[in-house]
Amino acid sequence: MLWFKALHIIFMVTWFAGLFYLPRLFVYHAMSSDQISIDRFKIMERKLFFGIMTPGGVLTILFGLGILWSGGWDAYKSSGWLHIKLLLVALLVVYHVYCGKLVADFKNDRNQRSHVFYRWFNEVPVLGLVVIVLLASLKPF
User: Fold this and answer.
1) 83-112 exposure pattern, b = at least 16 Cβ within 10 A, e = fewer
2) Model pTM?
């Protein structure tokens, strides 16, 4: 179980690195006006989403399920904090999928939002991370 936990944390860090950085790329992309920069952002967004974020997210979830499978579920299934954490992870998966839609929108020059929207959008995973780490560390209920 300790291997699952260590790998879960390692891939969670890579997933969140992408969740933090991709919306920041959207900010800069939405502000860009020259084609060279726009083309560069399209490449960066695609590589980050498919090369780092998605594998990090998938492996985070798989190793998290491994923790639950190897005894974590029996130990914590009646704990409210775990159910809230799992709900927040599900919401982060929705956020991740929506980021994929935004990558496709930018790729096809269909972005309809301003850089200000993406500045606020960029804060969503920060809130998720703070609450998830507090829940998993403190196990308050």
Assistant:
1) eebeebbeebeeebeebeebbeebeeeeee
2) 0.94
